[in-house]
Structures are given as C-alpha cells and as structure tokens.
Design brief:
The chain is mainly α. It has 23 helices and six strands. It has helices at residues 2-10, 17-48, 53-65, 85-95, 100-116, 128-150, 159-164, 166-174, 177-195, 200-205, 208-222, 235-238, 244-248, 253-278, 288-305, 314-322, 329-344, 354-368, 371-380, 382-397, 400-419, 457-465, 485-511, and strands spanning 78-79, 311-312, 422-427, 444-452, 473-476, 480-483. The strands form two sheets. Strands 3, 4, 5 and 6 form a four-stranded mixed sheet that branches. β4, α22 and β5 (473-476) form a beta-alpha-beta unit.
C-alpha cells in the first residue's frame, strides 16, 4: 500500500524499495522547508492585497493540494505571488473583496480552456523583456506601497500617488514616535532577509523569510511595541464564495479587463517560472499545456472559495529544488502543513507585526526588479531594454493591464520593424552613361527583395525618389518574401505616376524644335 502511494507521486519510471523510501524522505524534508518559506509570503501577500491574511493561506493550501497533485511541472510550487499583489489590490479597491472570487474563478476557467486548446506553449513566445518589465513595474509599485505599511500608514491608491506621496510620508514618520518604531521593525526585517543567507548554517535550518518574521515578532513582543498587528478572522470566516450579484459584475468592461489581466499575468509568470525551475534540476521537463491546466484548476478552486489568485512562485520552487525534492509529493505535503497550521494555530498570525510583512514584501519587490540584467541588456539589445523600461514605467503610471498591453504592442512593433528588411537593386544605370545616344531611353529595372511592410514604406519611397527622373521604371516585386497591401499599392502607384511623368516630359521634348 505504501509503495503504491509512492508510485502515484513518482509517476511512470519511479523506483521502488529502499530508493523509494529515500525519495519520500527527501520530499518530506523539502516540504517542511517550502512550508516555512510559504507561511510569511502567503500572509504578507494577502495583507498587501487588502484581504484577510487567511485568504493567502487558503491559496497556498490549494496550490499544494490541488495544483501540486496535478501533472505539469514536477517540482514547481504554486501559491499567492507578489507579482499579482498590485492587480489584486486595485481589483479589491474597485470591486470589493466579495467580487474577487468571481475574477479568480473566471481566470481559472480561461486557463483551463487555454491549456486544453494547447496554448500553453505559446506563452513562451511572449517577449522576455515584457515579462521582466512587468515584474519590474510590479516590484516598483509594490515597494512604493509597502513603504507606507512599514510605518503603519495608509498608502494612496494609484502607483504615481504612492511615489509622489513619499516626501510627505517621510515628514509624517519623522514626527511620530510610533511610526518610527514600526519603521525600525520593518527595516530590521529587511536587514535580516539580506544578511541571514550569509550565515549558511542558520540558513540551512531556518529559511530567511521565517527567520526575519520570527525575530521581528519576538522583538515586538519583548519590547511591547505599539505597532499594528495582522488581523485574524479564522479560516472558515475568511472564506467568501461568490454569489449571484458578484457574477452580474462580469457585464462591466472594467471587470473583463481585470479578468484578462489576471489570466495573462498569472499564466505568463507561471510558465516562465516553470522554464526557470527546469533549469535547476535534471528531472522530467514541464508540459506547458498541462501546467497551464493545473494552474487553471487551482485558480478555479480558489475562486470558488473567494481566495487570492495563484501562480507558480519561483522563490518557493527554488527552495523546493534546493532542499532536495525529487517528486511532486513535496509540494503536496507543503499544502498539508499549511492546512494544519491554518486550522490548529490561526492565532499565531495575530502576533505578527504588519511592518514585518511589509519588510518581506519590500525585499520581494526589489528581487522582482532585474537590476543586474538591465545594463548588459542595454549594451547587447538596446531595443529590448527600452521595452523593459517602458513596460515598467507604464505599469507605474497607468495600471497593470494597460502597462502590459503597452509593452506587448512595443515588442510586436519592434519585431515587425526588425523583420521588415528590404533591399532595392537597380540595373540599367550604366546605359545612361554610355556612348550610345539611344541607350539612355531604356527603362531602369528596379528589383525589391526582402519583406516590404508599411513600416519600411518611407525608406522604399525615398530610395525610389533618388532614381533618375528622366528614366522609366520597371518594378519587379518577385524577390519579396512578403509584401502587405499598403506597401504594394503605394509602390505600384508611385511607379505608375513616375512613368507617366517621364512619358509626358519626353513628349514635350519631341515637340520643342532643336
């Protein structure tokens, strides 16, 4: 019985006997590490999203017990992610917590449909610069918002207001003793997150996020600091299944845009994370369509429970691989530990300072910004670097959905421009310079090669305008691999008008006596 259960987790090709027991022990140990990493992140993402802390744990539980059990990526771990925090916060502010379940449910169903239609692999075609820009924009807005939470202050709603309000925040914090104490706790949390991995022995025993939260919570309790703590409702009280009135909101255009943003960003982040996790281990590779369906199933369940949306999370996934996980049993077990914690120890959340979770998210937001990649990218692929920066800036200035759309449009335009290479070859020029007086009357043969689109039309017309005005043109487009309608019509019209002018001038010259 035990071996059959292990074989279900391992799938085809799994070993048995003592090697099976060794694999299960490795997965068991890895699941505990992932659980310890997941707890502060689940709670922190929920608080930053403006929803009860328990909803973050529910999403983590579903990510383990539902998505973790389904095929797709063997070692990737799913749960609430910092990458969706800004979008969820905006949705909750605009439509309310009750509507969140509908948004997540429909997004999950769309992911299931896309996976069933085999669209998962196409997410690999999304420009990496757009994804990096998306994550960088999320990181910037996340940091700007959590700076307020570090001081127990309420953050403005829009990304620009958060950034422009920082000078006022500094003045308010400087004049408040309680705010300074909260800030000290939050900054201390960030310091532990940065420094803890350097203590390799300690990092092996306790993950940095949990160590930072534990130390900050202990210091807050010992010194009895008057700072805000996480509000606790209880697991069952936090569950809010969507009702009929929430489904009626789907008729609004804004809601549809939010659903599409959830679907696009969650899918892209999960599948890019899967590609990154595949590079960390030598096990089975990810089936992108099955992984997209697994994410969709998880989000559908989260939507029914009124919880946060989920994605695959690279921090938890990397911790899972580094802890020695061998099969998907580790991620399923991490969901079990989250469930046990949420049921037996819910009051433990109530002692965690909000400033501590803000510190965790500020650190997570900073990790989303590709600071090390930007300069090399600018040197080697300047266009990609511009797309990254513009996408991030657009997210800060507008919102998540519009910023990503702007980035995608820029990537498409850049690709279209780079692939629209055309060459104009002119033969017959030498005839006009020869001794034969009649040779100059022969037409010029102009052959266009490459890909002619409207983006390259100005260049083509400039080259044609530079040809001798007294010679007729024979335009040859057979060398084109692609020509769009606008370009074809413009070239034909120019050639027709040019030849008409040449014939008219020749006729006038014949009428003028020598």
């Amino acid at each position: 019985m035990r071996n059959s259960l292990l074989d279900r987790f391992r799938g085809a090709g799994g070993t048995s006997g003592s090697s099976g027991a060794k694999t299960f022990r490795a997965d068991f140990t890895a699941s505990l590490v992932v659980f310890l990493v997941a707890v502060p992140l689940c709670v922190g993402v929920a608080v930053a999203s403006g929803v009860p802390a328990e909803l973050g744990l529910i999403t983590g539980i579903v990510g383990g017990l539902v998505t973790g059990f389904l095929p797709g990526s063997s070692l990737q771990v799913s749960g609430p992610a910092a990458g969706l925090t800004v979008l969820v916060y905006e949705a909750v502010e605009q439509y309310g917590v009750a509507a969140l379940g509908v948004l997540v449910l429909i997004s999950g169903l769309l992911q299931l449909a896309m996976g069933a239609l085999g669209l998962g692999r196409w997410f690999r075609a999304i420009s990496v610069a757009v994804v990096q820009g998306m994550l960088a924009g999320i990181g910037l807005v996340l940091i700007a918002g959590q700076l307020y939470a570090l001081a127990d202050a309420k953050a403005p709603s829009s990304g620009l207001d958060k950034i422009f309000g920082i000078p006022e925040l500094i003045g308010d914090v400087a004049g408040s003793g309680d705010a300074l104490k909260a800030l000290a706790v939050g900054v201390g949390t960030i310091a532990v997150l940065v420094l803890w991995p350097r203590f390799r022995q300690g990092a092996k025993v306790l993950p940095a996020p949990l160590a930072a939260v534990a130390l900050a919570t202990g210091a807050t309790a010992i010194f009895d600091l008057p700072i805000a703590r996480v509000e606790v409702k209880g697991l069952l009280d936090a569950i809010q299944p969507p009702g009929g009135s929430e489904f009626q909101a789907l008729a609004e255009v804004g809601v549809i845009g939010t659903v599409l943003a959830f679907t696009l960003i969650a899918s892209a982040e999960s599948l890019f994370s899967a590609a990154a996790v595949d590079r960390l281990h030598d096990g089975p590779r990810t089936d992108y369509d099955k992984e997209l369906m697994a994410q969709g199933a998880g989000n559908a369940v989260c939507g029914v429970l009124g919880a946060l949306p989920m994605t695959a999370v690279i921090v938890r996934s990397a911790a899972n691989v580094q802890a020695g996980a061998k099969t998907k049993a580790s991620r399923v077990l991490h969901g079990v530990w989250l469930l046990v914690f949420a049921v037996l120890f819910p009051s433990a959340l109530g002692i965690i300072p909000v400033a501590t979770l803000a510190g965790v998210l500020v650190y997570s937001g900073w990790k989303l910004i590709p600071t090390k990649d930007l300069v090399p990218l600018w040197r080697s692929h300047r266009g990609e670097a511009i797309i990254l920066v513009v996408t991030a800036g657009a997210i800060v200035i507008t919102n998540m959905f519009e910023g990503v759309i702007i980035g995608l449009l820029m990537a498409v335009a850049k690709t279209a421009w780079e692939t629209s290479h055309v060459h104009v070859e002119v033969s017959g020029r030498e005839n006009g310079d020869g001794a034969d007086a009649g040779a100059g009357d022969k037409p010029l043969h102009v052959r266009v090669r490459g890909n002619a689109t409207f983006l390259r039309l100005p260049k083509l017309l400039d080259e044609l305008e530079g040809l001798p005005r007294e010679r007729e043109i024979e335009l040859d487009l057979t060398g084109l691999r692609h020509v769009d309608h606008a370009c074809e019509m413009a070239l034909a019209t120019w050639t027709e008008r040019h030849n008409a002018v040449v014939k008219r001038d020749a006729a006038l010259d014949e009428r003028v006596p020598a």
